[in-house]
Automatic annotation (TrEMBL):
Record protein name field: Coproporphyrinogen III oxidase
Compartments, as annotated in UniProt: Cytoplasm
NCBIfam families with a match to the protein in the record: PRK11883.1-5, proto_IX_ox
GO molecular function: oxygen-dependent protoporphyrinogen oxidase activity
Pathway assigned in UniProt: Porphyrin-containing compound metabolism; protoheme biosynthesis
Keyword Transit peptide: no
Residues of the Amine oxidase domain: 15-470
Sequence intervals crossing the membrane: none
Species, as recorded: Sporosarcina limicola
Chain's role: Involved in coproporphyrin-dependent heme b biosynthesis. Catalyzes the oxidation of coproporphyrinogen III to coproporphyrin III.
The enzyme's E.C. designation: 1.3.3.15
Length: 474
């Protein structure tokens, strides 16, 4: 590497760090910038939570399985990588909520649990008549008048009552963060609902006015065919593999951990990173994409970023179960179900993956993917594989008929891994970045702990950090 070039180190090889490295090298090539970019990853593989298992013709995700098409950044990245042709859309189908041992179809016209069509809402048996009458209060209730952040639970219970929240809104919203809706920050997770109430007062009327009407996409037989999510034909790890192949040779350091950061003595000095192999690297800028716990540990000697310790994490596990087609009898059409928090089940959701993502499953086979663990109920994640499999099969057998054992199961634990965006999250992140700006202005924070946990959110954060660094260096 050229000693005269500016040197940027990106710490963390998850999707945030990978996208930052890719776009920074792309900018340097296209604009002829004198820049060396190094990506440092503590593990021996890249991709973070994106992990795809390809086995016996199955494509099985251990972590995220898709992303919303309307959030453009993953599609743009795929195009920039030349793999846009590998994108596939999910097959549409009825989704359900499990309440009182019965699968109830999510009412038509529901937008993240908010009803925008009266007919399906009145007909559903997901709620009692009393619950429906209480939810109708949204039409007449005034705006909350609350300034600043509040919990999702508080916000939605006020507008719709507890029954709608417990049986529909909570399963839909909390699943993204594996969090407790009564502690999750409205401002940092779904601020659009606050804006709708502020502008339209009624959430029902506001969502109806602001949501574009979409004609269902149909195939030649008139059946619904495509959905609103994208993945890759051979799994999400396709994205990781494509980025790694296109990063500059020699710019990735795997199995290397940042042990410490030395504070620059003057504004002219460079930041020094201490590596676990004894090396020290002088750098002009750092994009730190690790989790908040690593960030707070690295800056503990300077008493910085200690407020990040207030960000809690939860543990979850996913269980993929592959069956011969004849071993599973499903009397309901659809792509999967969520589980109400009030239900007596260990699983929190189940995707009928062979239906939702047909390209993942060989002919004659069934692929189910169940989830366990949520905020305040995480002990199951610590059980053995055999125990988890037994519990999950027992739960599933109450809902669908399972005649035999699975061909195989793949269990993935994400221990203390899901950052919780609790009330006040945005201010905590702003405070952390303000602290860094004073003593370590060359270091940027980005990643799932900060400004969004979805793949598009993480890619966006990586790109914002790249823009900030380049503006400051050049």
């Amino acid at each position: 590497m050229n000693e005269q070039n500016k040197k940027v180190v990106i710490v963390g090889g998850g999707i945030t760090g990978l996208s930052a490295a890719f776009y920074m090298q792309k900018e340097a090539r296209e604009k002829g910038l004198p820049l060396d970019v190094i990506l440092v990853e503590a593990a021996n593989r890249l991709g973070g939570k994106i992990q795809t298992v390809r086995r016996d013709g199955f494509v099985i995700e251990r972590g995220p399985d898709s992303f919303l098409i309307r959030k453009k950044s993953v599609g743009v990245l795929a195009e920039d990588l030349g793999i846009k042709g590998e994108l596939v859309k999910n097959a549409t189908g009825q989704a359900y909520v499990l309440v009182n041992d019965e699968l109830h179809p999510i009412p038509g016209g529901s937008i993240m649990g908010i009803p925008t069509e009266v007919g399906p809402f009145l007909k559903t048996r997901l709620f009692t008549m009393a619950g429906k009458i209480r939810a109708a209060g949204d039409f007449i209730l005034p705006r909350s008048g609350i300034e600043g952040d509040q919990s999702l639970g508080k916000f939605f219970r006020r507008r719709f009552g507890s029954e709608i929240v417990e049986n529909l809104i909570e399963p839909l919203l909390s699943g993204v963060y594996a969090g407790d809706i009564d502690h999750m920050s409205l401002e940092s997770t779904f601020p659009q609902f606050y804006e709708v109430e502020k502008k339209h007062r009624s959430l029902i009327l506001g969502m109806k006015k602001t949501t574009p009407k979409q004609l269902p996409q149909k195939n030649s037989h008139g059946a619904k065919k495509e959905g609103v999510f994208h993945s890759f034909r051979n799994g999400l790890e396709t994205l990781v593999e494509a980025i790694e192949q296109q990063l500059e040779p020699g710019s990735v350091m795997k199995g290397i951990r940042i042990e410490g950061i030395e504070e620059p003595k003057t504004s002219e000095d460079k930041t020094v990173l201490q590596l676990n192999d004894g090396q020290k690297i002088e750098v002009d800028a750092v994009i730190l994409t690790t989790g908040h716990e690593v960030a707070s540990r690295l800056f503990a000697p300077y008493d910085l970023l200690q407020g990040l310790k207030e960000i809690r994490t939860t543990s979850v596990a996913t269980i993929a179960l592959a069956f011969p087609e004849e071993s599973v009898v499903q009397d309901k059409e659809g792509t999967g179900f969520l589980v109400s928090r009030s239900s007596d089940y260990s699983i929190t959701a189940c995707t009928w993956t062979h239906r939702k993502w047909p390209t993942t499953t060989p002919d004659g086979k069934i692929l189910l993917r169940a989830f366990v663990g949520r905020a305040g109920d995480e002990a199951i994640v610590d059980l053995s594989d055999r125990e988890i499999e037994k519990i999950v099969l027992a739960d599933l057998s109450k809902i669908i008929e399972i005649k035999g054992k699975p061909d195989f199961t793949i269990i993935t634990r994400w221990k203390e891994d899901r950052p919780q965006y609790r009330v006040g999250h945005k201010k905590r992140i702003e405070a952390a970045r303000a602290e860094l700006k004073v003593k370590f202005p060359q270091i940027k924070l980005a990643g799932a702990s900060y400004d969004g946990v979805g793949l598009p959110d993480c890619i966006d954060q990586g790109r914002v950090a790249v823009k900030e660094v380049l503006e400051e260096l050049f």
